[in-house]
Amino acid sequence: MAQMAERGSRSRSRSAAFTQTAVQDTETRDASGGLPGYLAPLSSLLADSVSTDQSNRKRKQQTASTSSRRPAKRSRRDQYAKGPLLGRGGFGSVFAGIRRSDGLPVAIKYVSKERTHTRLKVDGQGRLPLEVALMTRVSSPPVCPSVLQLLDWFDHRRRYVLILERPAPCQDLQSFCEENGCLDEPLAKKVLVQLIAALKHCQRRRVLHRDIKPENLLISTDSHDIKLLDFGCGDLMKDSAYRYFAGTPAFAPPEWFRHHRYHASPLTVWSIGVTLYNILCDCFPFRGTRTVTSKSRLHFPRKLSTECRQLIRWCLSAAPADRPSLDDIERHPWFQ
Ligand code: ADP
Ligand code: MG
Predict the structure, then answer these.
(1) 63 inside domain
(2) How far is the CA of 220 from the centre of ligand 2 (A)?
(3) Is residue 283 domain-resident?
């Protein structure tokens, strides 16, 4: 029996951004381990510890004797200071944060354990929660600059806490499009080239992301570099068909709705097509994916080039076998 874990649009909440200058990457930071000179002092918001669970426990800790293992664990969590909310999904929230030792911007993602009970084996690390396991696979060296890195994680009673890299200044691509309007073709091309590099990296690590959409892409507002994030709907990549769907229905391919099965590569390419259409046209390509057939017509704004239309049409082929591979997309004349 086919199963589906749907994800819709999340409610968005944005608080004031950090005022400090962005740290572009770890190499530019002070090798001495202290705060780099161009970082402003931590704001009072950042005085909060990573979680309230943690501060409550800390208070109890001060009045009670404990085992020798706990303080070590707690001091690891204390390495991060929590800042404003960046985004909230169905199963958790993401906050901006700072690594106290060196001022590195991080994001702190809380994931409810109700979201998933799946654990995956990772070499040398035992069985890890799904999102942590998939991110561990894609974050191990050699890394891909277009895939967001998992830096650390904690196992709380009711939730997992993921410490992620946070490029600054950045926005997710959906917010970026809401603020700046849809992308022009040169910028969409730049985004797509990086997305394909990220997805090829995931493919090499046998990770299926399964939730490609603008909300799950971070864009640096300075350099327009992008990073793929949110592996919470992902899975290990396999050659056979999947009969379970997790992700966002608006980006899911027609074969899922019709036959309740799909393969990794055509699903990914369909969601690339929807994403590309979405960031260029500011709407979805079809009224309902359920009814898409080879005769379904796609309408484009006049300004879009022939090559661009042709690539989107190819990615959104009704039959999975007619869709391009990631290599085919990379070689498409639109990029020449
Ligand atoms: P969910 O699983 O709830 O969809 P995501 O991991 O997609 O959570 O994060 C939700 C939102 O939070 C993203 O769309 C983005 O706006 C923001 N966000 C997530 N991670 C980061 C990060 N590392 N840096 C900056 N913003 C982030
Ligand atoms: Mg998400």
Answers:
(1) no
(2) 17
(3) yes
Question: Is ligand 1 within 6 A of the CB of residue 10?
Answer: yes
Determine whether the shortest distance from the Cβ of 320 to ligand 1 is under 6 A. Answer: no
Counting runs of H as helices and runs of E as strands, what totals does the chain give?
A: 9, 14
The protein residue with its alpha carbon nearest to ligand 1, atom 6, reads 230
Tens-place pLDDT, residues 107-146 = 999 999 987 788 999 989 999 999 999 999 999 999 999 9
Which residue(s) pair with 208 in the sheet? 235
Residues flanking ion ligand 2, Cβ below 5 Å: 216, 230
Write the CATH number for 269: 1.10.510.10
Q: Ligand 2: distance of its center to the CA of 212 in Å? A: 9
Total tally of structural domains belonging to the chain: 1
Token output for 94: 């993401």
- Would the pTM of this model clear 0.70, i.e. be above it? yes
Helix, strand or coil, per DSSP, at residue 226:
strand
Residue 165 lies in a domain: no
Give tens-digit pLDDT for 199-238: 999 999 999 999 999 999 999 999 999 999 999 999 999 9
Contacts of 308 (CB under 8 A, 6+ apart): 185, 188, 280, 334
The owner of tokens 């690539």 is 311
The verdict on residue 250 lying in a domain is yes
